[in-house]
């Protein structure tokens, strides 16, 4: 059995009495790309925010490396959730320099990370003038700066053109090859099918399917069955 880097047990979260996440038990093997799938409003972002300490679960457990999650684990986690937290008046390198100063890291790490996200040649260009794809890559660079074991990406392909999506896909696969575990949420099935090793499918806050990637061309069928079944049960 593969070693799990991250696991949740019966994770629950409600807002104003409405369950957004209900008894979700994820199992994320170390060194893989795990695709968290579901339609809009399925609970994907809520789960990722709980995994990264941005929200507290109402009940359930989160385990990191086999031990109960604590805020100390944030040093082993990098995340890009919602809008990349960038300084528009600074260059890519200057943005990462701010991060290294805050975290007490060597500036040598900046060049390594810029190379890994293909932003090493942007020079003094300000981040506010970057394309959406470049901003996404710089946000990922910021998440990587502290050499995390786990990288969490929430809908990273949103708004990207086909070339930007291809670059992102190749980048994510390269991270897994380096031993970084990646969890990414998405509703773009074709991209997850080409990127992820394992998937979890959410429907109305419930994990309806979890396991290895289905055979080529079968992901959409699995997704539609899972989401359709979840909605019928909710009704």
TrEMBL record:
<comment type="similarity">
    <text>Belongs to the ABC transporter superfamily.</text>
</comment>
<dbReference type="InterPro" id="IPR003593">
    <property type="entry name" value="AAA+_ATPase"/>
</dbReference>
<dbReference type="GO" id="GO:0005524">
    <property type="term" value="F:ATP binding"/>
</dbReference>
<dbReference type="InterPro" id="IPR017871">
    <property type="entry name" value="ABC_transporter-like_CS"/>
</dbReference>
<dbReference type="GO" id="GO:0016887">
    <property type="term" value="F:ATP hydrolysis activity"/>
</dbReference>
<keyword id="KW-0067">ATP-binding</keyword>
<protein>
    <submittedName>
        <fullName>Lantibiotic protection ABC transporter, ATP-binding subunit</fullName>
    </submittedName>
</protein>
<dbReference type="InterPro" id="IPR022501">
    <property type="entry name" value="ABC_Gallidermin_ATP-bd"/>
</dbReference>
<feature type="domain" description="ABC transporter">
    <location>
        <begin position="6"/>
        <end position="229"/>
    </location>
</feature>
<keyword id="KW-0547">Nucleotide-binding</keyword>
<dbReference type="Pfam" id="PF00005">
    <property type="entry name" value="ABC_tran"/>
</dbReference>
<dbReference type="InterPro" id="IPR027417">
    <property type="entry name" value="P-loop_NTPase"/>
</dbReference>
<dbReference type="InterPro" id="IPR003439">
    <property type="entry name" value="ABC_transporter-like_ATP-bd"/>
</dbReference>
<keyword id="KW-0813">Transport</keyword>
């Amino acid at each position: 059995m593969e070693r799990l880097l991250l696991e949740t047990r019966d994770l629950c979260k409600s807002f104003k009495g409405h369950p957004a996440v209900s008894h979700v038990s994820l199992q994320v093997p170390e060194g893989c790309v795990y695709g968290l799938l579901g339609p809009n409003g399925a609970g994907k972002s809520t789960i990722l925010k709980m995994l990264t300490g941005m929200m507290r679960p109402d009940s359930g457990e989160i385990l990191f490396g086999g031990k109960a999650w604590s805020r100390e684990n944030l040093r082993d986690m990098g995340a890009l959730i919602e809008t990349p937290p960038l300084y528009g008046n600074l260059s890519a390198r200057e943005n990462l320099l701010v991060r290294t100063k805050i975290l007490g890291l060597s500036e040598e790490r900046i060049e390594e990370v810029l190379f890994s996200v293909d932003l090493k040649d942007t020079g003094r260009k300000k981040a506010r003038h970057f394309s959406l794809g470049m901003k996404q890559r710089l946000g990922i660079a910021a998440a990587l700066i502290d050499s995390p074991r786990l990288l969490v990406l929430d809908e990273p392909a949103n708004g990207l053109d086909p070339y930007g999506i291809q670059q992102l896909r190749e980048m994510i696969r390269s991270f897994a090859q380096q031993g970084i575990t990646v969890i990414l949420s998405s509703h773009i099935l074709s991209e997850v099918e080409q990127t992820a090793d394992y998937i979890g499918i959410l429907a109305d806050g419930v994990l309806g399917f979890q396991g290895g990637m289905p055979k080529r061309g079968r992901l959409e069928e699995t997704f539609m069955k899972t989401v359709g079944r979840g909605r019928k049960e909710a009704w």
